[in-house]
Amino acid sequence: xxxxxxxxxxxxxxxxxxFMVASVLLYLGLDWALRSEVEEQLVNRELYLRALVARGxxxxxxxxxxxxxxxxxxxxxxxSDTLLLDPLExxxxxxRELTFQLRPGDPAGALEWITLRKSLVETEDVLGVVxxxxxxVLALLLAGVVTLNRWLARRVxxxxxxxxxxxxxxxxxxxxxxxLPTPAIEEFAELNQALNQLSQRLVADYESLRExxxxxxxxxxxxxxxxxxxxxxxLQAPVLQEDEQLTTLLSDALGGTQRLSRLHQSLTLLTRLxxxxxxxxxxxxxxxxxxxxxxxxxxxxxxxxxxxxxxxHADLPLPPLTLHPGLxxxxxxxxxxxxxxxxxxxxxxxxxxxxxxxxISNTGPALSVDPAQFFERFRKHNAASDSPGLxxxxxxxxxxxxxFGIEYAYAQAGTRHTLRVQFC
Length: 424
Fold this sequence. Notes:
single chain, alpha+beta, Heat Shock Protein 90, 4-stranded antiparallel beta sheet, 11 strands, 17% strand, rod-shaped
């Protein structure tokens, strides 16, 4: 729920609650005041009648029988409410009445119970008018609050909406701070200033990290290549042919250097993917079936060495995909290498490519863990493998970079491992 809508709701609840309480109190106060006025008039009439009787004069006649009632039998004394039928309107009308004792005429005469009545219709009419006015004012007040908040949302909160839109569209990889304006409202001005400072620090930190990554990748790759070349030269030296132990040590060192080089390249690629350092302008139309055939041709010696059978089925013609050529090649290489490395001698690799997906299925060992865990970094099928365990993580990052879906499925029957990339 939006902030302005939330505050408006609380304002409306508070206003309506206070207004209802005030209306009830006003209604009760007016009702008490009007009834008190009616009772005062009835008391004045009682005093008037008592004064007439005290002077020996008879009770005056009244044109309306309901205004004065004389009965010889006892009745409850004091004020009370009653309903009488209006002969003209033919409906029950509320009255306020006062009953008292009086001896009209001769003081030694019989005691009578006199009841004076006054209609409360005027009182109810006044209360109805007051209540109607209060409800009308309440409706106008609530409508005014809603209208005012909508106006505030369009005008006063406009700088905040502009800031929010700028934050949604902000891309750190453009290497530019936000550059938000300074609005007239102090709170929004402070917010924009803080966001500008934050974006400046983010850009500076991002540039430092990017430069460090590029420098580290460049500066470490060269020594690794030199070490690998020197070790290869040492292994070819004739003097080492007589020292088998030294040859083994150098071979192990060369293997570790090669693994370190592959790990360095993989981590560098992951870092560039996470930092979005592949410019969109570098993406070109790529025919994935051709790249796939080229990659399979390069892997033929490895397939023969492992005695694996690879079948490729592509639904031609296929439309090109707009990708970075290097990332497209890296994606296919990692998926195919995964299917070959984690296979068994005499196994199969089946590749299916169509407009919607790329599916690579291979035979392999049974799994005891969730296949989705293999997308994590340094997660391997076999802990003793020379692989750095980054192939599927790189494939997942490439798919995420271009909005593709990727999933790992495992079928216990036949121990089939399937990696599926959804293009759409």
